[in-house]
Amino acid sequence: MAGSLVLIDKQPGWTSHDVVAKLRGIMGTRKIGHAGTLDPMATGLLVLGVDSGTKLLQFISGSDKRYSATIRLGQATHTDDAEGEIVFSADASHLGEADIQSQIALLRGDISQVPSSVSAIKVDGKRSYDLVRQGHEVELKSRPVTIFDFHLTSNIRHDSGLIEFDVEVHCSSGTYIRALARDIGVALGVGGHLRALRRTQIGNFDVKDASVLDGDIHPLSLVDAAREVFPLIELNANQARDVVHGKRISAGSSGTFAGLWQGDLLAILEPAGSQHKSMVVFPEVFSA
Q: Which residues are catalytic?
């Protein structure tokens, strides 16, 4: 099968591994990877590479991401989300929109964030979430992330000492939305966790264009996928031949771009002095 990207709108309860396994059966290939996981509780966009499409994932996984989420204040859980056990409770009924807005404002921009302990970060060679499930206490180091936008999208809902509200977040790769919910709760002294999470965008890829696993799958060609990440430049025969043979080319362009051969994606090329060199190549499309 020719390489492609597949956008999947993951449903709740599925792990990202479940999605990969299901898609392997649908697409008839073992070679499938993803550009970032989602927790089982979460829904929304997964970008998956099929066959040679996996070569493009490295250029997508670090892209900015957008989420919609629901945050509850008044309860903290050991996973910082609704799947965890409640470890702290406090009356949050005195809090209003102004309190929430002030904390959201403090979390915009370049911040230092301690990831949730129930994350895929490795500690001494083991996933943090595996260590937590085994009963170990895990303390992860803070890391810099960027919150480009973080704002309320609903009224504040009060219920028996708890409050909930909906938000949208545009953030750099590596940001944990669960940690944002946790940190708002800590700052206000009442505890907080994530009740719902939906990823709506990864870079220029949007969940509105995604397929669901129990419906028709609509793969993106490599050219259409690359178009969402890089400028496209058609290469001539000499340039294409040199790229396939691992040589540098003079492209008359600046920056990283996707090089095409007769309309098909041949390579992703990056600057190398006054020339360009290939980062990945799809040699199967070249014939001359």
A: 39
